Amino acid sequence: MKAVLNLFKVRIGVAIALAAAAGLAVEQGLKTPTFLQATVLILSVLVASAAAGAFNQYVERDIDVRMARTRNRPFVTGTLKHGPFWLWVIGAMILASVVAATLATNVLAATYTFLGAFTYGVVYTVWLKRRTWWNIVVGGLAGSFAVLAGAAAVTPMPGPDAAALAVVLFLWTPPHFWSLAIACRKDYAAAGVPMLPVVVGDARAARAIFASAVLLVIASLVPAAYGLGPIYLAAASFGGVFFLLRCNALVRKPGRESARAAFLASLVQLGAVLAGAMLDVAIF
Length: 284
Hints:
This protein has helices at 2-7, 10-26, 35-59, 61-64, 74-77, 84-104, 107-128, 135-139, 141-152, 160-183, 185-191, 196-200, 202-221, 230-252, 256-283. The chain is mainly α. The protein has one domain. α2 packs antiparallel against α10 (160-183), α2 (10-26) packs parallel to α15 and α10 runs antiparallel to α13.
């Protein structure tokens, strides 16, 4: 069970599912999905994300074996046998999630659900990761599609709050993963993956992380100008300031410990934004 949970990157999937829930919660429209419809859509996003995570590990077994952070993944250790069976499982999961999202909500929400998985599994993992440091910048769209999937369950055209949250997910991904990449730079270099710290060094990457974090925090405050209230503003402000402080510490002293602290702070920031958005809507 532990190997299966590792394979499907369930923790990442839960974060992506929460992004879809936040997109659904903040969207205003004439049609509000029932609890069952919303639950099916959120679970569909979770399953699609899990399938993309498994595909990522299926494709990257040759890289994972060269990295200390990933060499205990189930396809590397042999706990799970690497073979075509898992491609069928992954394909079935994607198909099931798209069909379920379509039946529960609509085709547009299902399309966004598919695009999120496709962006992470194919665009990021297959096309970009081994070729360019832009890999994770484009890969950030995966989280944005989750927010848009939630919003599309309510209305075809996302409102300003949902659109702003989609931008937040896009801007959040680079500083989040670049922080991890500094902490694991030797691993990525050994595997031949051109993450930004490998290409430009830790100091320049740290400055890029801080600059992108500034843009992220500014974007995270935009929904407060379009309807989200004091709970969201307080949560987004707290998460943003906390993340910026950790990023500033990383610029001052680039290294493994400060990078890991910034990485963890990015999780706090994202959690504060998503939880703040849903709590604000629920209370006000």
